[in-house]
Structures are given as structure tokens and as C-alpha cells.
């Protein structure tokens, strides 16, 4: 019996699928290169300016090397290698850096952590070191400083302590410790700088802080408005109390000056300073606040600190003379 074979292929293949009108793009494989750790930069790369400044110190042979360290840590090992350990003084606002210097046997000085520019940092650091006895009048000092909030040094200045009038005035203000508490002066100055930087609720404000010789200042002034500090005990209105400092920032909106005793007790706010002096050399461009502050320090033994509403700068007057001017490199608003 013969059977007929079926027509067509015995194992039919399925028809090909229709191709889409546009083939989806295929991404090329990405080759990943193995990462290598970068070698640590050499000292010449990390501290090029510092290296040149230290070479300068070898040739100039100053009595002291003042290293102003705002953030970061000073390169103590590098400084000790070139034989400057006995000459270096680290000026810093960091207690941590101060403790590290103490462990290494390096002299240090804690300075206020304000937003100074380079030369204001140097001036305040010199004045503070003279006050604490680390520097003496006539000492040759090579000063190193950098930008605000930067660990990189970019300014080198050779100076003689007491040579410049502004520096001498700054030293005179900080050496008023026989009559004033240095802690009180630093606290008032910090409050003034904070007011100049922050203002009040985003708006700039200006005011005057008069510290010391409170009896004479009260006699030469009058109350413009209700005194917010009247009726409180002395322990409840001392500027060393953080709550009182916060209250002062709010009362800066009041017209007039704050009168603060040598020990930090805030006697009044909103005082109109009536001291008038004809023979005053007020710098051009300064207004009535600065004139009143200059006049009251000339007729009494107080120190007046003025906060500028326009620029936020803080000026310190003593004996009728502008002693320190601290400029704000920036403001919050």
C-alpha cells in the first residue's frame, strides 16, 4: 500500500515577526575605568604662600610669628621643623585649636570670633596678645592671616607693636582692664557686631553702647522713653546673661543709647546723650551717633561702641578718639 506524502514542508517554521517602524536605539556599553586614589598633596602644593612666608621669617628674623587661624588647624609640625616653635603665637577663636596648641607646647591666644577682614584680624590679635602679655611694646612681629572662613593664608605683614596709631588705640581700649572687665568689653563688642550683621528681623538697625563711668554718663544724658531695665535686680540685667543679650538685640529698635556699668549691669536703654564738645575731629561722613559717642567719651571715662545702621560697621571710641573700626565684610540681609 502506498501512502501519499503531504505537500509542503514537514516541519513548517513560524513566520518572522514584523519589525517595528523604528528600532529602539541601543545604548553602547559604558566602559568604567578603575578609580585611583589621588596622592596626598605635598606641602608645597598645600601651603605655597605659607612656605614663602616662612622663608621670609628666616631672613627677617622677627621676635614673634603671629599665625591667625580662624578655621582648620595650624601646621604645627611644619612650623616646628624649621625652628619657629619658640617664636610662633597662634591666635584663634577655636577652643579646640587652643587645646591642641597647649598639648604641643605652642603659645596661643583666644581672640573673638568676629567676621573681621584681614587687617582687622591682625590689629585685634596684636592688641589682645599685648593685653595678655604674649607681646610687648616694640616687638617685631611677622603676622600671617587669610580670608574670612578660609584656612588658606594669603596676607603677610611685618609690624612693630605700638608703631601705628590705630593699633595703639586698640591696645588702649583692651588694656582698660583696670577699670573695665575685659569679659564685659568683649561681650558688648560681640553683641554690637551681631546687631550690625543680623539687624532686627531682616532690617538694619543702629545703636550706641556706652560702657563704664555710668554715674557721669547718666548725668550727661536723659531718658527718651520708658527704661525697659528699670525695676529689675542687678543679677537679672547683666549683659553676661544670654537672655539679657537677646533682649538687648530687640531693644536696639529704641532711639538712644544703652548705658552699661563696668561689671556688665545694664542700667538703661533709650538714653539721649547730651554731651556736646566743639573741638571734635569727627571723620568725614559719620553722623550724629558717632558724634555723640565721641563727645561722651571725651567728657567722661567711658567707652562708647557705635553700630552703623547703613553699613553695619562697629566703631569704638575712647577719650574722644576713634580707637577701632570693625567693618562687616557681609551682612545677613
SSE arrangement:
Layout lengths: L42 H4 L1 H13 L3 E6 L6 H6 L6 E5 L2 H10 L2 E4 L7 H15 L7 E7 L6 E8 L4 H10 L7 H17 L8 E5 L2 H6 L1 E3 L18 H10 L5 E4 L5 E8 L14 H11 L4 E5 L6 E5 L2 E6 L7
Parallel strand pairs: 1-2, 1-4, 2-3, 6-8
Antiparallel strand pairs: 4-5, 6-10, 7-9, 8-9, 10-11, 11-12
- What fold name stands as the CATH topology of the largest domain? YojJ-like (1
CATH architectural label of the largest domain:
3-Layer(aba) Sandwich
Radius of gyration: 33 Å
Count of discrete domains: 2
Instruction: Name the poorly predicted regions.
Output: 35-46
Which structural category do the helix and sheet elements fall into? alpha/beta
CATH class of the largest domain: Alpha Beta
* Proportion of residues in helical segments: 25-40%
Mean pLDDT: 78
Basic shape = elongated
- Main β-sheet description: 7 strands, mixed
Number of strand elements = 12
**Proportion of residues in extended strands:** 15-25%
How do the SSEs run, as a string of H and E?
Answer: HHEHEHEHEEHHEHEHEEHEEE
| Quaternary form | single chain
Amino acid at each position: 500500500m502506498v501512502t501519499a506524502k503531504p505537500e509542503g514542508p514537514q516541519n513548517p517554521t513560524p513566520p518572522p515577526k514584523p519589525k517595528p517602524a523604528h528600532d529602539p536605539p541601543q545604548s553602547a556599553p559604558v566602559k568604567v575605568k578603575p578609580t585611583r586614589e589621588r596622592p596626598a598633596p605635598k606641602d608645597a602644593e598645600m601651603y605655597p604662600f605659607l612656605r614663602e612666608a616662612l622663608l621670609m621669617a628666616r631672613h627677617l628674623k622677627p621676635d614673634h610669628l603671629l599665625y591667625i587661624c580662624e578655621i582648620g588647624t595650624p601646621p604645627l609640625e611644619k612650623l616646628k621643623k624649621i625652628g619657629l616653635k619658640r617664636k610662633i603665637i597662634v591666635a584663634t577663636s577655636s577652643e579646640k585649636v587652643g587645646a591642641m596648641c597647649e598639648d604641643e607646647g605652642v603659645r596661643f591666644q583666644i581672640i573673638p570670633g568676629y567676621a573681621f577682614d584681614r587687617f582687622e584680624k591682625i590689629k585685634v590679635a596684636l592688641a589682645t596678645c599685648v593685653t595678655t602679655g604674649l607681646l610687648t611694646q616694640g616687638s617685631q612681629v611677622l603676622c600671617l592671616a587669610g580670608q574670612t572662613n578660609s584656612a588658606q593664608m594669603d596676607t603677610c605683614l611685618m609690624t612693630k607693636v605700638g608703631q601705628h596709631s590705630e593699633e595703639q588705640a586698640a591696645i588702649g581700649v583692651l588694656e582698660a582692664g583696670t577699670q573695665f572687665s575685659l569679659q564685659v568689653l568683649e561681650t558688648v563688642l560681640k553683641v554690637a557686631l551681631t546687631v550690625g550683621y543680623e539687624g532686627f528681623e531682616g532690617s538694619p538697625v543702629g545703636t550706641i553702647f556706652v560702657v563704664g563711668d555710668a554715674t557721669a554718663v547718666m548725668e550727661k544724658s536723659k531718658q527718651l522713653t520708658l527704661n525697659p531695665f528699670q525695676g529689675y535686680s542687678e543679677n537679672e540685667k547683666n549683659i553676661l546673661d544670654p537672655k539679657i543679650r537677646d533682649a538687648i538685640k530687640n531693644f536696639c529698635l529704641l532711639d538712644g543709647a544703652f548705658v552699661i556699668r563696668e561689671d556688665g549691669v545694664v542700667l538703661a536703654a533709650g538714653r539721649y546723650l547730651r554731651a556736646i564738645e566743639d573741638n571734635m575731629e569727627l571723620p568725614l561722613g559719620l553722623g550724629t551717633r558717632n558724634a555723640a559717642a565721641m563727645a561722651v567719651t571725651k567728657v567722661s571715662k567711658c567707652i562708647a561702641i557705635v553700630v552703623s545702621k547703613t553699613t553695619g560697621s562697629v566703631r569704638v571710641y575712647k577719650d574722644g578718639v576713634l580707637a577701632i573700626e570693625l567693618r562687616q565684610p557681609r551682612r545677613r540681609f
